[in-house]
Amino acid sequence: MRKLLTACLLFLCTHAAAGVVLIGHASVPRLDEAVVQKIYSGKVVEVAGVSVAAVHLRSGSAQRNQFLQAYLNQDEEKYTAYWTVRRYIGKGVPPRELASAADVISYVQGTPGALGYIDEADVKPGLNILLRK
């Protein structure tokens, strides 16, 4: 019984520590963190000749908060404020928001140039992993 309890706790700790990974359409090459930051801030719209279209998970989701912290070094409030100003001065619109990891996977696989992030636990064989932290 003690071994089972230990195994369950270990699994829960491992799952809770899982991060988010950046996935992309097959047409999108591997990316480094600096390029990801520029894409999600609207400063880069093309990578290696491919027009990119980033997507987010819905505001307030745990994976979105993890992504913002790990990849962009921002929190939700700072990121939203950034895009409020950019939109106001006519410098673009924030990335589209999708409701779930399944929606992100479907969109990314079916849209050339698309990229988004999902929880590491949702990664399936055949996905194009662009960056993992």
UniProtKB/TrEMBL annotation:
It comes from the Bacteria. Keywords: Signal. Residues 1-18 form the signal peptide. This is Phosphate ABC transporter substrate-binding protein.
